[in-house]
Every structure is written in C-alpha cells, then in structure tokens.
C-alpha cells in the first residue's frame, strides 16, 4: 500500500535505514524488532503498526532494490544492450557502488539469500518481458535467457566484489567476463 502521509513515510524510511545500518554488521537472524526500533528511534508498537514482521520490512527493501534495478533494465531496448552490453553493466555497477553495504549484503550474503532470491526472481520476470519486447521468443525461452543473464551477472558481481581491493571492483574486468559469459550463452537464443 502506497501512502503520502509524511509521518508514515518518515517512519518507514527510519525503519528501512535502521535495517540497512544493522544489516551491515549483523546476520539476518540476529536482527530483532527491539534493536531495529531502537536504531530507528521508534517504539515497538509503532513498528507493528507498519509491519507484521522483520521479514515484511526486508521484503519491502528487496522490492525497492528490485524496482531500482528494473529501472536500469528499462533504460535501453534489449537489442541495443545485446550489441552494447556495457550499457546495463555500467549502470548496474554504478547502482551497486552508490548504495550502502547493506544493499550489497542483501544481494550477495548467504545470510540474506532468501531475499536475494526474491530480487533475482522478480528481475528475471522484468528482463524476460524486456527480451520479449525486443525478440520474438517464447515465454519459456525469454525466462531461461533472463534467468541466465541475471544469475550470471549477480554471481560474477559477487565474485568480483569479494576479490576487490579496497572494495571497488575493476569495472572493465567485470564487464569483460560478464559480456563473454553472457553473450556466448544467449547468442543461440537471440541470433
């Protein structure tokens, strides 16, 4: 449910920020409503006015991340991206670098894998729709290609992020690997 009530929005933003702050240093199972509400500066009753559980709050954050990544996918037609794959990859790396360590943890930590899987499933649907807008593929082929592309890109980003000196990945190396792996794999669908 979308609201325009500024108090509700402030409370939800405070809880989301508190979750992001706690997620950087805490495993998911260690985050409690008590430490979440304390970090947000609200009481437990207020939390339960907005959410039934921490899972619901994390799902909302996962959906926000999905929407932001979906916006990146929608910036260019997939035919254009296929011929210039760096377009999306640069935007994806910019997104990942601009966001907090919590969002990266949500995407790449084993402890938050349930939420990463949610993001991946939703992005697969978004990308499959975009693929079908550019190519005459069956839904099954579009979903398989989309899953392949999303999964490989996230997996390679996770790998390069953990290998990165100083926390910043070598964008060009990452892009070369993603392009090589992804374009080879999907070329049989798109050609």
TrEMBL record:
State if Ribonucleoprotein is listed as a keyword: no
**The HTH tetR-type domain, residue ranges:** 9-69
Domain of life, per lineage: Bacteria
Swiss-Prot/TrEMBL keywords: DNA-binding
Identify the InterPro entries for this entry.
Answer: Homeodomain-like_sf (IPR009057), HTH-type_Tx_Regulator (IPR050624), HTH_TetR (IPR001647)
Identify the DNA-binding region of this protein by residue numbers. 32-51
Output the Gene Ontology terms for molecular function: DNA binding
- Please identify the protein, giving its name as recorded: Transcriptional regulator
* Biological source species: Levilactobacillus acidifarinae DSM 19394 = JCM 15949
């Amino acid at each position: 449910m979308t609201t325009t009530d500024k108090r509700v929005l402030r409370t939800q933003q405070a809880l989301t920020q508190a979750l992001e702050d706690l997620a950087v240093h805490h495993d998911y199972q260690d985050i409690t409503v008590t430490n979440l509400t304390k970090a947000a500066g609200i009481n437990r009753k207020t939390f339960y006015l907005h959410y039934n559980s921490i899972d619901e709050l994390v799902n909302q954050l996962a959906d926000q991340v999905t929407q932001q990544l979906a916006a990146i996918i929608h910036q260019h037609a997939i035919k254009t991206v296929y011929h210039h794959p760096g377009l999306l990859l640069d935007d994806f790396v910019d997104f990942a670098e601009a966001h907090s360590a919590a969002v990266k943890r949500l995407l790449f930590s084993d402890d938050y894998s349930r939420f990463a899987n949610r993001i991946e499933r939703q992005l697969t649907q978004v990308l499959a729709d975009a693929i079908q807008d550019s190519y005459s593929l069956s839904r099954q082929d579009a979903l398989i290609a989309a899953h392949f592309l999303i999964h490989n890109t996230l997996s390679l980003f996770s790998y390069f992020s953990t290998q990165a000196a100083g926390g910043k990945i070598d964008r060009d190396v990452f892009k070369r690997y993603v392009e090589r792996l992804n374009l080879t794999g999907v070329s049989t669908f798109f050609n």
